[in-house]
Automatic annotation (TrEMBL):
GO BP of this protein: copper ion export; copper ion homeostasis
GO molecular function: ATP binding; ATP hydrolysis activity; copper ion binding; oxidoreductase activity; P-type divalent copper transporter activity
Keywords: ATP-binding, Cell membrane, Membrane, Metal-binding, Nucleotide-binding, Translocase, Transmembrane, Transmembrane helix
Family: Belongs to the cation transport ATPase (P-type) (TC 3.A.3) family. Type IB subfamily.
Official protein name in the record: Heavy metal translocating P-type ATPase
Membrane topology according to the record: Multi-pass membrane protein
CDD domains in UniProt: P-type_ATPase_Cu-like
Main location: membrane
């Protein structure tokens, strides 16, 4: 793609020149093997061409070609097959591939064909392989378009020339001119337009009238009338005759309509291919090969398909991580932005998890493959996006209901226009009647209505995947745009999820170092998450580690045991009271620590208060800004946590959270969702996708907070690859932008048809003396679908 050199994109200096790249991934590929990308071979003359400075470039069937001169480029464009004869053919679709309609995903067939409802060409279901080759319908329609255009242009010159001062018809004479029109229009209508008539006939057989029904009727009527008028002009009464006494023919209208419809279809198919570019871009994240380290220590590149779980792989600087696994050797920073949407690289060392498709920035790593093929996170993301792109949003129901009555209504309007013009129109009234009826049939565009929602959904789900927001289905996206309440957990969502030791307060007569040694030694035997924080904090502060005896954990209170011959107890106030330990001297300090968001635990030695150790889970640096953004998007935020009320309220106060529900268990979260539903709230619930499954299912939209390497995709409508509040902000922006885009599309489609059909019928004629030409109607119809798709494609660049 073309990159703006001033946009701050990644660059590489090579051979005395600076090269600009669209992404870090492309920069990494170039840095790894610049020679692969510097030169191309001119397919015509075989000369080597410098890609960076090449002035002559073209695309053919989705692939770019470089040329040494404009002459070679012109030769190639005139007959590309001549120069591509020895190229491999596109891979065939895998056996068992099923096909579906982009507008009607409920239509599923075992082989290619057209949709029985709308006539669109069926597309392969599931995840693309990346080697599908050119769209056969696009290739066929492009060829038919060029033939139609080549024959329609001389037709237009012959018929419209006299209007601009070219007396072309006088050169031939009126009757010979009509025969020339017949000769030029017949191949267009009877060969090029054959797919239109085939789809139109199928729509009648299937009792699903659609756009092709209208086009077939309009083109067929104009052509058949013109053929009869050319061959048997005497059969027509006076009302059919023009000012010169001849019967007008509309061969040019039939041919130009076909050419313009093909133009619209070609533009539409190309635009629809771009809506699927997100999946192809995701597939491209995974390298085609991996560097395998064999048992004897030798290394060589192998196809990605040959990598098995347990294999050791070398990841060099600039390489993409081929599969999911863990680091066994080395240290480096990994760019995970293409999976998580987070721009800051993540440091990785031995034991850390790696996700396939991410980019190694600088160091060299050795990893052990753990998940390969369809089990990788990237493969799951691609699968999820592919399914989401075929799902239907509830808002589509409105368009479906309108479309059901649309075509029959348009046919009735065309008949009514014909009758009114035939009876009340000026002479030649029958000609006006035919023109208005054909224009009505041609201008109506149910396709614009049908495409309004699916194109936006396809584009949005792909855009979300690149930002770490995975949409399970279109309904979740639509619902999330309308929710007004967000329920979130504290631990791991608002906070880091890794408690740390923050305070050690020694009572009078107790040394702080000794207090920490006793507390950490006792906590070594505990499995509580806070115990790890105390043990790790003591180790970091250089506290000694002793042996513990008579260890006992008291549920809901704390732990006790013997350390260095002393009876030590650590726990909450209830445990101290039960042990007969007075906590009054440090009670105010403990309350102050809790008010600051820490968990304060008392330590007693030999039955006397020895001090306090406090642990807190630090708030993520991005949380406050994310909470502000969520508030600005109209969400009320409720924090539901199992923590005690004081700690929870302290965190909520710091972040400006609207409501706190503390001491709540996972099963209690579903009751909270039900309670809020009863009050009329529309709720999104964010959880880990496993423990919170009942609440996620009960909410209007469930949001699974993934970890980047273990994405819980089945429990929720939206999954965030990185469990971070900023992911919810991005999902909210995406949902609202998508619904806004769909409404724009539907509004345009409704207004276009509501205005276009009456104008084509001739309502403006009494006021302005203007009757719409069928050719202009065809141009408007074609552009309406293209406009809807072009608007949907804007979602690819929406800021999240």
């Amino acid at each position: 793609m073309t990159v703006d050199a001033t946009a701050g994109k990644p660059t590489v200096a090579h051979g005395g020149r600076v090269f600009h790249f669209c992404s870090e991934s492309c920069r990494g590929k170039f840095s790894h093997s610049p020679e692969t990308y510097l030169e191309a071979t001119d397919p015509v003359c075989g000369m080597k061409v410098d890609r960076a400075s090449a002035r002559h470039f073209t695309r053919h069937e989705g692939q770019g070609f470089y040329f040494c001169s404009s002459g070679c480029k012109a030769k190639f464009e005139a007959a590309p097959e001549t120069y591509l004869g020895d190229r491999p053919k596109p891979a065939l679709m895998p056996k068992g591939t099923q096909y579906t309609c982009p507008m009607h995903p409920e239509i599923i067939r075992d082989k290619p064909g057209s949709c029985p409802k709308c006539g669109m060409a069926l597309e392969p279901m599931g995840v693309p392989t990346g080697d599908e080759g050119p769209n056969p319908e696009l290739v066929d329609f492009t060829r038919r378009f060029w033939v139609s255009a080549a024959l329609s242009i001389p037709l237009l010159i012959l018929t419209m020339g006299p209007m601009v001062g070219l007396p072309v018809r006088n050169w031939f004479g009126e009757q010979p001119a009509i025969w020339i029109e017949l000769a030029l229009a017949t191949p267009v209508v009877l060969w090029a337009a054959l797919p239109f008539f085939h789809r139109g006939w199928e729509s009648i057989l299937n009792r699903s009238p659609n756009m092709w029904t209208l086009i077939s009727l309009g083109v067929g009527a104009a052509y058949l009338y013109s053929v009869v008028a050319a061959l048997f002009p005497d059969v027509f009464p006076h009302s059919f005759r023009g000012h010169g006494g001849t019967v007008p023919v509309y061969f040019e209208a039939a041919a130009v309509i076909v050419a313009l419809v093909f133009l619209g279809q070609v533009l539409e198919l190309k635009a629809r291919e771009r809506t699927g570019s997100a999946i192809r871009a995701l597939l491209d994240l995974a390298p085609k090969t991996a560097r395998l380290i064999r048992a004897d220590g030798t290394e060589n590149d192998v196809p990605l398909e040959e990598v098995k779980a347990g294999d050791l792989l070398r990841i060099r600087p600039g390489d993409s991580v081929p599969v999911d696994g863990s680091v066994t050797e080395g240290r480096s920073s990994i760019d995970e932005s293409m999976i998580t949407g987070e721009p800051i690289p993540v440091e990785k060392s031995v034991g850390d998890l790696l996700t396939g498709g991410t980019l190694n920035r600088n160091g060299s790593l050795v990893m052990r493959a753990e998940k390969v093929g369809a089990d990788t996170v990237l493969s799951q993301i691609v699968e999820l996006v592919a399914k989401a792109q075929r799902s239907r949003a509830p808002i589509q129901g409105l368009a479906d209901r309108v479309a059901y009555y649309f075509v029959p209504t348009v046919v009735l309007v065309a008949i009514a226009a014909f009758v009114v013009w035939a009876i009340f129109g000026p002479e030649p009234s029958m000609i006006f009647a035919i023109v208005s009826a054909v224009s009505v049939l041609i201008i109506a565009c149910p396709c614009a209505l049908g495409l309004a929602t699916p194109m936006s959904i396809m584009t949005a789900t792909g855009r979300g995947a690149h930002a770490g927001v995975l949409i399970k289905d279109a309904e979740a996206l639509e619902r999330f745009a309308g929710v007004d309440t967000l329920i979130i957990d504290k631990t791991g969502t608002l906070t880091q999820g890794k408690p740390v030791l923050t305070e050690v307060v020694a009572a009078d007569g107790m040394d702080e170092g000794e207090l920490l040694t006793l507390a950490a030694t006792l906590e070594k035997g505990s499995e509580h998450p806070l115990a790890d924080a105390i043990v790790e904090g003591a180790k970091a502060r250089g506290a000694a580690s002793l042996d513990v005896g008579d260890f006992e954990a008291i549920t809901g209170k704390g732990v006790k045991g013997t350390v260095a011959g002393k009876a030590v107890a650590l726990g909450n106030a209830a445990m101290m009271v039960a042990s007969g330990v007075a906590i009054k001297p440090l009670e105010a300090r403990a309350d102050a620590l809790r008010a600051d968001g820490s968990t304060a635990m008392f330590v007693a030695v030999e039955g006397r208060l020895a001090g306090i150790v406090a642990v807190s889970d630090p708030i993520k640096p991005t949380t406050a800004e994310a909470i502000k953004a969520l508030h600005e998007s109209g969400l009320k935020i409720i924090m539901a946590t199992g923590d005690n009320e004081k700690t929870a309220k302290a965190v909520a106060a710091k972040l400006g959270i609207d409501e706190v529900r503390a001491d709540i268990l996972p099963e209690g979260k579903k009751a909270l969702v039900d309670e809020l539903h009863a009050g009329g709230a529309r709720i999104a619930m964010a959880g880990d996708g496993v423990n919170d499954a009942p609440a996620l299912a009960a909410a209007d939209v469930g949001i699974a907070m993934g970890t980047g390497a273990d994405v819980a995709m089945e429990s929720a409508g939206i999954t965030l690859v990185k469990g971070d509040l900023n992911g919810i902000v991005r999902a909210r922006h995406l949902a609202r932008a998508t619904i806004r885009n769909i409404k724009q599309n539907l509004f345009f489609a409704f207004v276009y048809n509501a205005l276009g059909v009456p104008v084509a019928a001739g309502v403006l004629y009494p006021v302005f003396g203007m009757l719409l030409s069928p050719m202009l109607a065809a141009a408007a119809m074609s552009l309406s679908s293209v406009s809807v798709i072009a608007n949907a494609l804007r979602l690819r660049t929406v800021k999240l």
